[in-house]
Design brief:
The chain is an alpha/beta fold. Helices cover 26% and strands 15% of the residues. It has helices spanning 3-8, 25-33, 47-60, 71-74, 76-86, 104-112, 150-160, 175-183, 205-213, and strands spanning 14-16, 39-41, 66-69, 95-99, 117-121, 132-136, 142-143, 166-169, 188-191, 219-222, 234-238, 276-277. The chain is globular and about 60 Å long.
Length: 317
């Protein structure tokens, strides 16, 4: 058993990323029951609703699970309000994850409540008070915290902090990917895109379809999508150019490219020549879930192998 599994009470050294509008109580609990680190996304949830979501997850599983906060989006004060609301609701053995470095007050609140803190970073910065540090490489989908490929980041941080408990994020899609990450010096891994198409995910059905069908050449990194999260680059899916409009759009209609549903994604950017689909999509890795065999591709459907250095699993038909 690896150190993250021991510290967090898991059977597998695998954490599910706390993706906003994707990782609700159902997904969190399903991953937890399967033996990995299911994580509930809090994102911008008001404190009262955040506490209610935690209670729903706790009812659905008796295994350890986590909650994820995003301090750079909510701001330190709102993040602390979320933590004060949810920490009394967290069962014993639960953990807290932070996308980006939390401030000192947030760290103290989590530690005072007796829960392990998992901090995700994209640079050589060591997270304050982190029991587990997740190193996110540029192979990851969605919001990116740094500019280094995951292998280089892991080697650099391991050299500086040889005793730190380190997990990696980016390009994890199969059991072989997880095993390879551990062989390269990681203690475990975090995956996000892998879980987007799961039945328990609250992602929009079109989002799920696009993620399943995408390969490496369909992704790129851009800073065009700043709605709700300024100055943070994303790995996204490309879209074909939209058809020309024959008439002006009514003022009452929604902005172009936004869909209804729990997962809203902007399909067209507001700059000339850019037509990208925002998605939590990794670096073209095959979606063959580690924990949910029923979500695998139909027998006989060949998965195209992406030309990606971040993919090391076996590719099967």
């Amino acid at each position: 058993m690896t150190r993250p599994a021991t510290l967090l009470g898991l059977e597998l050294p695998l954490l599910q990323a706390g993706m906003g509008a994707v990782a609700g109580p159902a997904l969190c609990a399903a991953v937890s029951r399967a033996g990995a680190g299911g994580t509930l996304a809090l994102y911008r949830e008001p404190p009262a609703r955040a506490a209610r979501l935690v209670r729903e997850a706790a009812v659905a599983t008796d295994r350890p699970f986590g909650v994820n906060v995003v301090p750079e989006v909510t701001g330190p004060a709102a993040c602390l309000d979320q933590l004060r609301a949810i920490l009394p609701e967290l069962p014993r053995g639960a953990f807290v994850t932070s996308f980006g470095l939390p401030d000192a007050d947030a760290v103290r609140a989590v530690q005072a409540a007796g829960h392990p803190l998992v901090v995700q970073v994209g640079s050589l910065a060591l997270g304050r008070g982190a029991a587990v540090l997740v190193l996110q490489g540029t192979e990851a989908g969605g919001h990116l915290l740094g500019r280094m490929p995951v292998d280089l980041l892991l080697a650099a941080v391991r050299a500086r902090h040889p005793r730190a408990v380190l997990a990696v994020a980016g390009g994890i899609a199969t059991g072989r990917d997880l095993a390879d990450a551990v062989a390269r010096g990681a203690d475990g891994a975090m995956a996000g895109t892998l879980f987007v198409p799961a039945a328990e995910s609250t992602a929009h059905p079109e989002f799920k379809r696009r993620v399943v069908e995408a390969v490496a050449d369909d992704t790129l990194i851009t800073s065009l999508f700043e709605i709700g999260w300024p100055h943070r680059p994303h790995r996204v899916l490309r879209n074909p150019p939209p058809p020309p409009r024959s008439a002006p759009r009514p003022r009452s209609s929604p902005p172009p490219g936004w869909t209804a549903g729990h997962t809203r994604f902007r399909a067209t950017a507001r700059r000339p020549g850019s037509h990208h689909h925002r998605a939590h999509r990794g670096d073209g890795h095959e979606l063959r879930p580690l924990l949910h065999p029923r979500h695998r591709p139909a027998p006989g459907r060949r998965q195209r192998r992406p030309d990606s250095p971040g993919v090391r699993g076996r590719w099967r038909t």
